[in-house]
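[Automated response] Your request has been received and processed.

Submitted sequence:
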Amino acid sequence: MIVQYSPQVHPKNLRFSGAPEADERRPVYTFQGESVAVTIDGQTGVYDLSGCPEGGFLSEAQPIGEVRALLSAMRIDGQLQVQLWYPIGDNATEAERFPQPFEPGGETLPEGEAMAVTWDMPPEPEPGADERIAVLEDELLISYLAQAEMYEQMLSMQAESLMTMEALAEIYEIMIGG
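Generated structure:
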């Protein structure tokens, strides 16, 4: 599992700038396997993310109190990728503002309520979609070639018109005696 904290500044988060209640309000995350325990304001919820199918993504996660701590989760090439809410204040360090993804080690999860998660899958391509795309690409190429041919004809006509104008100018010069 790869974890990425998502720092978010909000006026309420400014309380995290050293106020005594800051340690109680900041979420504490604990990881074990593909489970994440989140403790906020003394409430602990445990998200079991092992049910995420390949190519699947989180559609909904039960909040802890009023806090939606689990922002996103998806499985790509067998790797579970999780994004978690991380409040920061106005005095956040560079590391807090731009956290690096990390692979957590095995920890012991605290006791907590099992939190519900719902997974979605991206829509399957319609049958025959690849063939229709190939036909459209061919039609587009034919259209470009036709446009190029028309452009060449237009340039040729302009060149002929220019030559005709030059010839008329020469005839005019001869007629006026020049």
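Summary generated for your ticket: Confidence is low (pLDDT under 50) at residues 13-23. The CA atoms of residues 53 and 80 lie 9 Å apart.
If you did not submit this request, please reply to this message.
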